[in-house]
User: Fold AIG1-type G domain-containing protein from Cyprinodon variegatus.
Amino acid sequence: MCSPGPHIFLLVVPIFRAFKEKDLEALLEVLMPLTERVWRHCMVLFTWGYWLNDCPVENYIVREGKGIQELLEKCGNRYHVLNPRHYDDSDQVKELFKKITVMVKQNGESFTCKTKKKISQKLPWRRIQKQEEWRKREQKLIERVMKALAKEAEEPTGPFSTIAQSMDDFHISDLGEDGSSECGSFYTVRESTNS
Assistant:
């Protein structure tokens, strides 16, 4: 949605994992809101290229079947393979950037140019709607805080001290009644009179 928008979408497909038709369906569903125009800006990037064992990637594409072949067809048969075992070989990255440059020149524009006007017309209304919602939430929060403060002021203020009751019906006294040891304060235990 930001200007100038994406020039290319790299669809990353790891070679070590089979690309099934369900993967293609999921990808089509994700890209559906972007319209059919998005496919002019897509390229498949095969990763984990060393799984090919020096065989051409075309063999992999034929062996994988309909799912990957349909994806490549939608992308205009644009693809590239990266082999992490040859990370010091900068030629594979340079070749990828050359392919990207050719795609950008062929498309002549970024993906969002034609839809920018429609999107920008919707944004002000959404922004105003969100601002009103945040104001309402803020007002409710202020009202809650004010009610809590009003209730708190009604209660007597003074030193806070209570006696805690243990599980076996003994009371643990306040720290102020007992002395201190070198490890800190210690408690005296009184038997409960509530029994």
